[in-house]
Amino acid sequence: LIAFFAPKPLAGQHVLVTAGPTYEAIDPVRGITNLSSGKMGFAIARAAVEAGAQVTLVAGPVGLPTPRGVKRVDVKSAQNMLAAVMHAASAATVFIAAAAVADWRPANPAEQKIKKDGSGRPPELQFVENTDILATVAQSARAQSGALFCVGFAAESQNLLANAQAKRARKDVPLLVGNIGPATFGQDDNALLLVDAQGAQELPRASKRSLAQALVAQIAARLHVEPP
Ligand code: CTP
Ligand code: CA
């Protein structure tokens, strides 16, 4: 009942969110991933639905329940995530890239399990860089025209403000969100640094749920102002 009377600042919007890690196969039984829990992205998807948006959540391998009202697309690798995002992006008006996408994948994943060869020498893995999903979407005509508002996250272990500002410019997105350390992977709370063309603003430490609500409100406010 309370939710029914709450303001719906994202009514009419279609929000696309990526969340969680990706998994890059080395062979059929092994792979490379990272410690992203997906909690922040799932909280954002939930907050966006509660704000009245239609929401598509492209999720890497995580064991989290799907927030009520969210359309979830499960993916494994960064390449799968890119394909799912490009498919959904054409209908979206907001893209929030909260996933911790693997930067590299094994170049030639083995079709069969790699066996020890008895020499004592480990296999040498070659890597290739994954396509930057956020930067790809941000370069699309709809993003460049302002029809699709793109929000990035920045995972940094040092110099958050400078690195986040540089990342915002490099990815060409209007809003970049930095996690204020220490490492927040898997935690239930976080603190965020919002970096846009005007400068930086801190969302102080709180639960990921309330930070997601605050972030959604910040995004909604930016949708209703004309770009400079
Ligand atoms: N991202 C993405 N696709 C990738 C890599 C990153 O969409 N292949 C997105 C993330 O979801 C995040 C933003 O880009 O929103 C920044 O990710 P981050 O790992 O902090 O930056 P990178 O550009 O990968 O640079 P680096 O890891 O070297 O700092
Ligand atoms: Ca990265």
UniProtKB/TrEMBL annotation:
The keyword Ligase applies. Binds 1 FMN per subunit. Residues 15-228 are annotated as: Phosphopantothenate--cysteine ligase. Pathway: Cofactor biosynthesis; coenzyme A biosynthesis; CoA from (R)-pantothenate: step 3/5; Cofactor biosynthesis; coenzyme A biosynthesis; CoA from (R)-pantothenate: step 2/5. Transmembrane segments: none annotated. Its cofactor is FMN; Mg(2+). Its EC number is 4.1.1.36, 6.3.2.5. GO terms for biological process: coenzyme A biosynthetic process; pantothenate catabolic process. Catalyzes two steps in the biosynthesis of coenzyme A. In the first step cysteine is conjugated to 4'-phosphopantothenate to form 4-phosphopantothenoylcysteine, in the latter compound is decarboxylated to form 4'-phosphopantotheine. Catalyzes two sequential steps in the biosynthesis of coenzyme A. In the first step cysteine is conjugated to 4'-phosphopantothenate to form 4-phosphopantothenoylcysteine. In the second step the latter compound is decarboxylated to form 4'-phosphopantotheine. In the C-terminal section; belongs to the PPC synthetase family. In the N-terminal section; belongs to the HFCD (homo-oligomeric flavin containing Cys decarboxylase) superfamily. This is Coenzyme A biosynthesis bifunctional protein CoaBC. It comes from Rhodoferax koreensis. The gene is coaBC. The chain holds residues 189 to 416 of 427 of the full protein.
